[in-house]
Amino acid sequence: MGLLDGKVALITGGARGMGESHVRLFLEEGARVVFGDVLEEEGKALAAETGAAYVRHDVRSPAEWRRAVDTATELHGRLDVLVNNAGILTYGRIQDMEPEDFDRVIDVNLKGTWLGVKSVIDPMKAAGRGAIVNISSIEGFVGAEGLSAYAASKFAVRGLTKSAARELARFKIRVNSVHPGAINTAMAVNPDLMAEVDVEAFVKSMVIKRFAKPVEVSHVVAFLASDRASYCTGSEFTVDGGLLTGAGY
């Protein structure tokens, strides 16, 4: 018996990286999955391999949110879980960053998450309950040089999560945030970022001295999506190998 048997889940940014890991684990745990992404080639390939349903989905677009939600409800008759996973990272010091680059990060990471919460309220109310998992970051707790836009967006996702948890509890909709640390994905090892980071010193600062596999985040996301997390809402879950303990960070 799977952790998510009977659940219908919508996962954003699901074509690669952590999102792909979420899609695969949710399917293994018994969920029926619809996932969105702007990476159409990768999305269609993952759908063909796994049997999950893919929809092109730019999370900045209310119309594409409606299409993604409608796809889930039309295919499976309900929607129980949303994983707001889609996100981008742009490296640049404040003095050097263009305003449009800042806006793009905020639009995807924050507005896209807000639109997701807004878009699933009605179908989750119709289902009688729901679970929303917003993917933030350890940069939602601490600032990082060159990541002002990313950190601002991820700090804001924390606040959005807490407000949504208070608003939606009356409908039995739980909202929590997950804060990954050093995860071995293409976004985390962005060349512009890696050029500015002393990776050896960074690893030495970790309590668990390695980068995580994406599935190690997915297991926490799946728990929060499941009924086993029935008393968790408005909470923050770090998956960071101890980075935020303050030891050398």
Based on the structure given, which CATH architecture is correct?
3-Layer(aba) Sandwich
Number of domains: 1
- Unreliable sequence segments: none
> What is Rg?
17 Å
Superfamily at the CATH H level?
Answer: NAD(P)-binding Rossmann-like Domain
InterPro entries: NAD(P)-bd_dom_sf, Sc_DH/Rdtase_CS, SDR_fam
Family: Belongs to the short-chain dehydrogenases/reductases (SDR) family.
Keywords: Lipid metabolism, NAD, Oxidoreductase, Steroid metabolism
Protein name: Glucose 1-dehydrogenase
Helix and strand arrangement:
Layout: E1 8-11, H1 17-28, E2 32-37, H2 40-50, E3 53-56, H3 62-76, E4 81-84, H4 99-127, E5 130-135, H5 148-168, E6 173-180, H6 191-194, H7 199-205, H8 214-225, E7 236-239
Parallel strand pairs: 1-2, 1-4, 2-3, 4-5, 5-6, 6-7
Helix pairs in contact: 1-8, 3-4, 4-5
Structure notes:
This protein has helices at 17-28, 40-50, 62-76, 99-127, 148-168, 191-194, 199-205, 214-225; strands at residues 8-11, 32-37, 53-56, 81-84, 130-135, 173-180, 236-239. It is built from eight helices and seven strands, in the order E-H-E-H-E-H-E-H-E-H-E-H-H-H-E. It has 249 residues and is an alpha/beta fold. 45% of the residues lie in helices and 14% in strands. The protein has one domain (8-245): NAD(P)-binding Rossmann-like Domain (Rossmann fold). The longest helix has 29 residues, at 99-127. It has a seven-stranded parallel β-sheet with strand order 3-2-1-4-5-6-7, sandwiched between helices. Helix 1 crosses helix 8 (214-225). The mean pLDDT is 93. The protein is globular, with a radius of gyration of 17 Å. It is an enzyme of class 1 (oxidoreductase).
